[in-house]
Amino acid sequence: MEALLQDLLGENLLTTIVYCSLPLVFILVYALLAILGEVKISAWMQDRLGPMRTGPWGIIQPLADVLKLLQKEDTTPGTANKPLYNLAAFLPFMASYATFAVLPFSSEYVGADLNLGAFYLIAVSSIAVVGIIMAGWSSNNKYSLYGAVRSAAQIISYEVPAAMAVLIIVLFVGSLNLSDITVAQEGGFWNWFVFGGPKGEVTLADGGVISASWANIVYFPLFGATFLIYYVAGLAETNRTPFDIPEAESELVSGYHTEYSGMKFAMFFMAEYANMFVVSAVAVILFFGGWQSPYGTTIGDLAGIRWLGAVEEFGWFTVKGLFFVFVMIWLRWTLPRLRVDQLMHVCWKVLIPATFAIALVVGALVLVV
Amino acid sequence: MDYYSLLFYFFAVLAVGSTVVVVFSRNIIYAAFALMFTFLGVAALYILLLADFVAIVQVMVYVGGILVLLVFGVMLTKNITNVDFGGKSMNGFPASLIVGVIMGTLILLVTRTLWFRSDVPLVPENTTKTIGELMLTSYVFPFEVAAVLLLVAVMGSAMIARRS
């Protein structure tokens, strides 16, 4: 992919900028689809039709929403702290865009193929909390501040089980590189980590070898449980129902972004949708084979056409990622909101001990087998 | 000037500039948020030195942990906007003496050290493995001492919090 761009544009700064902007294009297109999906799916779940008037079957509705947001007046509360109020709108999206840098969209496109990919992802996503607190405080509104404090407490707590779940897979693979973790699951859906990991032998880029053994029987339920823990923790980190306590409309108006309007509100909205995809994509990379196709090979590879294989891999990655985004939407319109004490109970007394226990067992098995 | 120097000066100015805000700002919230840019600037400088693991630890521990805790704590206190801190200078002479000595030592160190330049182009390596091995072999004692120290600190703070 980088080579292709260099052929087209030459080896200069422009190529780098274009290369770095590709995920932005992806996010914009995906956000439009996800907004449409959200309104339509919520409508069907409540036995409604949803938007039907903008375009055939309402499919231009998200575009109309974007135009509306662009035209809206950008209001700032008179008592708000203006510099921080303006800056805060961009930090959460910045943090989630930064995580896109290490997502392997296909074997041909990874923004930065870092050796520390998984670690980087966990570290960078924590910058969003600073933006949320900044937004809540600078709005000078008690609902915003409550929302920010709740959100920060929630994200900080759920970062622990999410990071531990990532660590369990990292322990098994022996690499923090997300491309390596994807490659470790090659050869068909039965080799994905959610189904207990590779059933044959896999050689990684740095020469490490993962081979099958009797321990796969143990890994199968353990990795399945790890996936569930990761997904629940990830859901909590995106602040979506059943974990939308920071935005609880019935109590806090809209949480930390109560005062924001127009494009600044849209930035928070985009950050939420981008985060949903990041969480789903990480779940896909760690447990569902990343860009690997479920039958182990691609038509492009069989026919010997490299670009077609890469496009198919990108397709698989997106389809799997969007499926988990769909599950998030599904959960949002099915489950009621948790209480704060239930939220903390689930995190500190259920998820964290469970991840530690799984990490111990997996670590011991990796050492022994 | 190549991209490397450009990036270096950009992040160096970011780190130093935001530190100036941290030190001289009268508003404690501004100081706390400026600290974020200091941490990020320093992390970027680590990356320019090819210390990727240290850079990410910097972001993880300082931005994701310490800074959030700091801002959280500041926000839960009353009247954050008009906390009067640093209104007057006190103990000017001893403070400037100590700062002067430390600064002088640092400047001496920087100017006296024989910095060497490598002409070999540096390639980022997989540093995590090496750091992990060193931490659990040659440096296991300081590593464990730091761990015990943190444990003691946690227990101490829990005890202080319980008593009141």
Question: What's the short version?
Answer:
Helix content of chain A is 65%, strand content 2%. Chain A is an all-alpha fold and 369 residues long. Chain A folds into two domains: 1-71, no CATH class; 81-368, no CATH class.
> What is the residue-averaged pLDDT of chain B?
83
In the CATH hierarchy, the architecture of the largest domain in chain B is Up-down Bundle
Described by the principal axes of the CA atoms, the overall outline of chain A is: globular
> Pairing-aware structural class of the strands and helices of chain B?
mainly alpha
Describe the structure.
The complex is a heterodimer of chains A (369) and B (164). By secondary structure, chain A is mainly alpha-helical. The model of chain A has no long low-confidence stretch (mean pLDDT 84). Helices cover 65% and strands 2% of the residues of chain A. The longest helix of chain A has 33 residues, at 13-45. Chain A is globular and about 65 Å long. Chain A starts with a helix and ends with a helix. Chain A has helices spanning 2-9, 13-45, 61-71, 82-88, 91-100, 117-125, 127-138, 142-173, 178-183, 216-237, 249-252, 262-287, 299-303, 306-332, 340-368, and strands at residues 201-203, 209-211. In chain A, helix 10 (216-237) packs antiparallel against helix 12 and helix 12 (262-287) packs across helix 14 (306-332). Chain A folds into two domains: 1-71, no CATH class; 81-368, no CATH class. Chain B is mainly alpha-helical. Helix content of chain B is 75%, strand content 0%. The longest helix of chain B is centred in the middle third of the chain and has 25 residues, at 52-76. Chain B starts with a helix and ends with a helix. The mean pLDDT of chain B is 83. Chains A and B meet through helix 6, helix 7 and helix 8 of A and helix 2 and helix 3 of B.
